[in-house]
Q: What sequence folds into this?
């Protein structure tokens, strides 16, 4: 048996999340159906993490085993020929036996997009949270820096997916307007501006978080909390108080799913 690693991009709008669910259209189910069509084998895939309904990915990583002898370039072309237009296989590689998409992941990076103009952008509404009032991005960025480092992030975890530990390490977090993000950030991440479809003006806010792992809805809870600061309802120091409380009820609301994108996974 061969072990294969796929890198996927997908628009999560039409899917009930990553994980297979009875009676629902999911990214995992769609990919496994495509693999069966291409390899004539039933394959169960394992992703680096389960994205929720409406959440997107530019660099989701998936691993699986197969007896197929198709070359990796042929497998990529064949999968992209049968997958729907909102899912694409970016890369295919054969990896050593034992590769585990979850356990072997060292860091993940997510991007969240907020549109804070009074009038919504009808063409990008599926890729951002339309927040109809101007937010203080500088205050949000300063507050976000209080989350850097190793902490118990229970305050930013939605119940429903229990973990052995809620301790995670955030290695990078920033908030900026799309037109003002420093060039070194993009170079560091190896990303093009098209990872998430935003306009070059200053009506779109980017929030990026990189960590060694994430709790259920952690990024969306962080975003909702930072928005409380950005709209002036809470002080910047309040974010530290929320973190120390380890109480989800103290944090801000969970931001909508459509603004979130899994950008990259490091192994």
A:
């Amino acid at each position: 048996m061969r072990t294969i690693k796929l890198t996927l991009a997908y628009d999560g709008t039409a899917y009930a999340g990553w994980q297979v669910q009875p009676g629902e259209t999911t990214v995992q189910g769609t990919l496994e159906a495509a693999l069966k069509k291409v390899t004539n084998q039933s394959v169960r895939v394992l992703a680096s993490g389960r994205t929720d309904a409406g959440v997107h990915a530019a660099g989701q990583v998936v691993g699986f085993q197969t007896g197929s002898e198709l070359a990796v370039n042929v497998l990529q072309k064949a999968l992209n020929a049968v997958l729907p237009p909102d899912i694409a296989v970016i890369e295919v590689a054969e990896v050593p036996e034992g590769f585990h998409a979850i356990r072997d992941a060292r860091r993940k990076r997510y991007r969240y997009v907020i549109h804070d103009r009074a009038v919504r952008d009808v063409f990008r509404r599926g890729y951002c949270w339309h927040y109809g009032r101007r937010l203080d991005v500088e205050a949000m960025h300063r507050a976000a820096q209080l989350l850097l480092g190793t902490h118990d992030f229970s305050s930013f975890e939605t119940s429903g997916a229990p973990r052995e530990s809620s301790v995670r390490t955030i290695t990078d977090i920033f908030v900026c307007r799309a037109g003002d993000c420093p060039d070194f950030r993009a170079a560091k991440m190896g990303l093009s501006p098209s990872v998430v479809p935003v306009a070059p003006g200053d009506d779109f806010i980017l929030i990026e978080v990189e960590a060694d792992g994430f709790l259920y809805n952690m990024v969306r809870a962080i975003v909702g909390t930072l928005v409380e600061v950005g709209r002036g309802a809470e002080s910047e120091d309040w974010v530290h108080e929320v973190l120390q409380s380890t109480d989800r009820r103290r944090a801000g609301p969970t931001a909508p799913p459509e603004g979130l994108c899994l950008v990259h996974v490091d192994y």
Observations:
- The chain has six helices and ten strands.
- Strands lie at 2-10, 46-47, 56-66, 87-95, 107-115, 129-130, 149-152, 167-177, 204-211, 260-266.
- The longest helix spans residues 27-39.
